[in-house]
Each structure stands twice: as structure tokens, then as C-alpha cells.
Prior knowledge:
5 strands, globular, CATH 2.40.50.320, alpha+beta, 5-stranded antiparallel sheet
Amino acid sequence: MPKLHDGRPRSAALTIACVALMFIAACGNGGQQSQPATPPPSGPAAAVHSNSYQGIGTVKSLNPKAPAIEIDHGDIEGLMPAMQMEFPVTDASLLNGIAINDRIDFTVESGAGEMKVTAIKKK
Length: 123
Ligand SMILES: [Cu+2]
């Protein structure tokens, strides 16, 4: 059921604006290009900035021990074309309630040379 046009448009809009601002604030600080030239530290701690992408796909396998999930996913705009692949997940609990062949919406965070699924929602 679409939620955009029913219920509480005012508070929903405020919530979305708030979340968007938080994302911009969180993301913007790391990625500012107009900052004075502070030499970035090298090593794994350097690339704290990460980008978040939304994907849709079908679950192909679950590996709670890794933890990881294999997804046959569609195009993830700005990240990769459609393919079947395994993603590490931030926490095995994300796999709770998810079964093979489920259609899912998922969030991928990409940064510091690695990708991780940070959220999974069954469709
Ligand atoms: Cu992929």
C-alpha cells in the first residue's frame, strides 16, 4: 500500500526532510571539496566517507556465518549493473526472516574499497 498519499503527510514530510538533512550533514563533512588542504591520513581510517545505494533483487543464498547474502539484483544506480553476487552484510541479524527466493529491497554502503549490505527489507 503506498504511504505517500495517505496518513500524515505533514509529519512524514518532516521526517523525510530531517533524515535527508542528517544524511547530507553526515555525508557532506567527509566529502567537502572546498575545505582547506588538510592532508588526509593514509591507511584504512582515511576513507571513512561512504556512499549508500538502493537495490532490488531476489535472494539466492544466505550465509549467516560470514555473514553474507547472495542476491540476484537489478541495476544499482551509480554502483553496478544487474548481476548475481554475494554481498557481505553488517550483521547476521539482517538475515533474520529472509529466505531464499524472497524479493527484497536492500541498502548497500560502499566505501573504503568495500561494500556491505546495511539493510534488507522483504518486499
Ligand atoms: Cu553486483
